[in-house]
Amino acid sequence: MKHCVRKSAALLAVLALALTGAPGVLAEGEQIQVSEDISVSADYDWTRFADDGITLNVYNWGLYISDGSDDSVDVLSAFEDLTGIKVNYTTFDSNESLYAKLKSGGATYDVIVPSDYMVGKMAAEGMLAPLDFANIPNFAGIGEEYLGWDFDPDNTYSVPYTWGTTGLIYNTTLVDEAPTSWAALWDVQYANNVLMFNNSRDAYAIAAKKLGYSLNPASVEEVDIIMEELKAQKSVVQAYVMDEIFDKMEGGEAAMAPYYAGDALTMIDENPDLAFVHPSEGVNFFVDSMCVPANSKNKEAAELFINYMCEPSVGLANCDYIGYSTPITAVWEQLDDDLKYSEIAYPSEEVMAKAEVFSTLPDEVNAAMDAQWSEMKSYEEGGSGWMVVVMLLLAIAVSFFNIWRKLRKKARDNY
C-alpha cells in the first residue's frame, strides 16, 4: 500500500504537468516537484519500479549525504516518495573498509561510492558492473574535467559524485603560526596534539609529499622509505582517526589534523577557531564516484538512483549540506557565492597545479603498503617491541616475588 501511495503521488505530479503543456506530451525541461526543495526531470520514468517492492542497499561514506539532519533536505526520503523504491542506507569510513566488506562477500550492495583508485582496483578485480548510461541521462551534466581519469578512462563503471582535496585543519588558539607544510604534523612541539589519517593511502600520501615523492609509489622500496617516515611521526600523534576527527577538532581536543576539504568546512562552521590550509608541497585531488557492484540484484534500479543523485536540485542539496565540491555544472552555477568561490572547496589554480590524483597501484606495491601499514598500526597500538619485553619481564619478576613471599611466610608460620 505504501508503494502504491507513492506511485500515485508521482503520477499525479506528472499528470498535472502534462495538463499544463501540450496534450499528452511533457515539454522538454518540465519538472516534477517531489518536495519543497527537490524537483526532478519529468522526461524520465521515475516510477517504473514502484510496484516491485525493491529495496536498494546504498553504501556511502559517513556524513556524506543530505539526510534531513540539522534542517538539511532529506534527499533519500524524497527519492523513496518519488520512485516507490526503499533505500537501506549504511556508511563506511575508508575505501579500504569498503573494499574489505565487499571482498568478504558478507553483504550485497546496489550502489557504492568509492574513491578514484579504489574504483580502478575494484574494476580490475571484476567487482563492478559496467553501467548502462541509457538509464543515467543526467551523466551529460557532469563537467568534462571530472571524466576520463586513468582509474576509469571511459567512465565504464563510475559516475562522479563529489570531488575535493586534502589539507591541514588546525586550531588557531593552539597553533602559534598558520602551518604551510605537511612537516607541521611531525613537529614535536605538538606532541600528543596531532591527529593523523587512519588509512594507509592518505597517510602515505602526506609523508610522501613531505619528502618530495609522488603520492603514488613506483616501487616497494619507495613504500619502505615512506613508512619509515610515518614511524618517525608516531611519537607526535595523539590518535589515528577518520570520522572521529569531527568531535576531536570541533571540541578543541587536538591542535591540527590532515583531512578532506569538504569536512573541514563543516568543522569550521561548528568551531570558528578552526582554519584550513593546502600545504605547499602539494595535496591529493580526489573524485568519489557512484558505482554498481557486479553482484547487485537491482542494477537498473541502482542506475535510476544514480541518475536521481545527478539531478541538479539533489546535487545542490548534497553539496550545500556536506560541503564537498560538485562535478555537476548546473549545481556549481546555483551555489551561494561564499561556497562557489571558497578557496577551500574550489582551490586556486596554484593549488590544483600541485595536486595529484591517486592511481591504482601494482599488486606488489599495494600489498607492501597494506602490510607495512598494518605492522605500524599494530606496533603503535601494542607499544614498541622492547617495551613489551620489559613489561613481560616485570610481570615474571612480580610473579616470582609473590611466590617467594608466600613461601617465606609459610616457612615462618611453620616455624
What percent of the residues sit in helical stretches (DSSP H or I)?
A: 40-55%
Contiguous low-pLDDT stretches (5 residues minimum) are 1-27, 380-396
Mean pLDDT: 88
* Record field, number of beta strands: 11
In N-to-C order, the SSE pattern is HEEEHEHEHEEHHEHEHEEHHHHHHH
Rg on CA atoms, Å: 26 Å
Beta-strand content estimate: 5-15%
Major pleated sheet: 4 strands, antiparallel
SSE order and pairing:
Elements: H1 2-20, E1 31-33, E2 39-41, E3 55-61, H2 75-83, E4 86-92, H3 95-104, E5 111-112, H4 116-124, E6 159-171, E7 194-197, H5 200-210, H6 220-233, E8 237-241, H7 245-250, E9 256-260, H8 261-270, E10 274-277, E11 285-290, H9 299-309, H10 312-322, H11 329-334, H12 337-340, H13 349-353, H14 363-382, H15 385-414
Parallel strand pairs: 3-4, 3-5, 7-8
Antiparallel strand pairs: 1-2, 6-9, 6-10, 6-11
Structure description:
With 415 residues, the protein is of the alpha/beta class. The protein has 15 helices and 11 strands. It has helices at residues 2-20, 75-83, 95-104, 116-124, 200-210, 220-233, 245-250, 261-270, 299-309, 312-322, 329-334, 337-340, 349-353, 363-382, 385-414, and strands spanning 31-33, 39-41, 55-61, 86-92, 111-112, 159-171, 194-197, 237-241, 256-260, 274-277, 285-290. The strands form 4 sheets. Strands 6, 9, 10 and 11 form a 4-stranded antiparallel beta sheet that branches. A 3-stranded parallel beta sheet has the order 4-3-5. Helix 1 (2-20) crosses helix 2 and helix 6 (220-233) runs parallel beside helix 14. It is globular and about 60 Å long.
